[in-house]
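Sequence in, structure out. Go.
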Amino acid sequence: RYMNLLSENKAGYDAANVNNYAALLKGKLLLVHGSGDDNVHPQNTLQFVNELIAKNKPFDMMIYPNRNHRISGGNTSLHLFSKFTEYFLSNL
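Output:
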């Protein structure tokens, strides 16, 4: 909706496709995804994971079941920010 249609902006879509950059990853990566996300569909994240695996890139991943793009609700925010803090302290 912001990038026009693929047929009208193929170069823009190619440039925005993170799968094209998996081989360039250096350092640590924590992927976090809500399985109920209707903005970034879980399949997109899984395609990126496949690219990371194909390029032998290490990564960590946290899935929040039934959480949307905001990844909130219940104890989720506390858990998420605790995960971020733990990851930063361990890896930076």
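Check: The radius of gyration is 15 Å. The chain has a mean pLDDT of 96.
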